[in-house]
TrEMBL record:
Phylogenetic classification of the source organism: Eukaryota, Sar, Stramenopiles, Oomycota, Peronosporomycetes
Name of this protein: Catalase core domain-containing protein
Keyword Oxidoreductase: yes
InterPro entries: Catalase, Catalase_core, Catalase_haem_BS, Catalase_immune_responsive, Catalase_sf
Residues in Catalase core domain copies: 1-71
Gene3D superfamilies: Catalase core domain
Source superkingdom: Eukaryota
Residue ranges of coiled coil: none
Species this chain originates from: Phytophthora oleae
Length: 192
C-alpha cells in the first residue's frame, strides 16, 4: 500500500488483504516486488530470492532464512500502523514468542519413526550439517535436543564421526581414483 495510507479495520477488507499480493504472485511470480514498475523507492530488506522474475541480483550470497548469524535483515519492531482510534478490540500484532515449535516433531520422532529410521534421520541431518559453520551446527543440535535429548545426541554423535572422517581425509589429501560421474561415451547407433 502507499505509505501513509493504511487499511481500515473493515472485516471484509481485512479478509481480502492477503489476496492482493497473492494475485500478483500468481500472475507475475514470487518476485513481483522486484520488477522495476512494482519496486518501492526504498530498497526493501527481505529474505525473498530465486524463482521467476528475479531481476535484482538475487541478494548475492546473503542468507535466505531467519534467524541467522550472518547479519541478515531483522524485523523493525518500531514500524507499525498508526494507532487506531476506533474499536480497540482489533488485534495489534500476533506474538509468536510462546509458540511450541518442538512437541509435534517430538511426537513424530517417538511415535512414527522406528529405531532404524531415527538412525537414518540423524545420519542424513549430520551429512547436511557437516559442511556448515560451527555456530550453525551448535544451534541446529540445540534445536534437535529441544525436540528430544536422544535426537540431539544422535545427530551430535553422527556429526562428530563425519567431522573426524573429514579431518582425516583432509590430512591424507586422498584423491578420488575414479570420478563420481565418469564422462559419458558418445552414442553410436547400431545398424539393424
Amino acid at each position: 500500500m502507499v505509505p501513509g495510507i493504511e487499511p481500515s479495520p473493515d472485516k471484509m477488507l481485512q479478509g481480502r488483504l492477503f489476496s492482493y499480493p497473492d494475485t500478483q504472485r500468481h500472475r507475475l511470480g514470487v518476485n513481483y516486488q522486484q520488477i522495476p514498475v512494482n519496486k518501492p523507492l526504498n530498497e526493501p530488506q527481505t529474505y525473498q530470492r530465486d524463482g521467476s522474475m528475479t531481476v535484482d541480483g538475487n541478494m548475492a550470497d546473503a542468507p535466505n532464512y531467519f534467524p541467522n548469524s550472518l547479519g541478515g535483515p531483522l524485523e523493525a519492531g518500531n514500524l507499525r500502523y498508526h494507532a487506531y482510534t476506533g474499536d480497540h478490540s482489533v488485534v495489534d500484532k500476533f506474538s509468536t514468542a510462546d509458540d511450541d515449535n518442538f512437541s509435534q516433531v517430538g511426537e513424530f520422532y517417538h511415535k512414527t519413526l522406528d529405531k532404524e529410521a531415527r538412525e537414518r534421520l540423524a545420519e542424513n541431518i549430520a551429512g547436511s550439517l557437516v559442511n556448515a559453520s560451527k555456530p550453525v551446527q551448535a544451534r541446529a543440535v540445540a534445536n534437535f535436543t529441544k525436540v528430544d535429548a536422544d535426537y540431539g545426541l544422535r545427530v551430535q554423535e553422527k556429526l562428530n564421526l563425519l567431522e573426524k572422517a573429514k579431518t582425516e581425509q583432509q590430512k591424507a589429501k586422498v584423491r578420488m581414483t575414479e570420478p563420481l560421474n565418469p564422462p559419458r561415451k558418445a552414442f553410436k547407433a547400431v545398424a539393424a
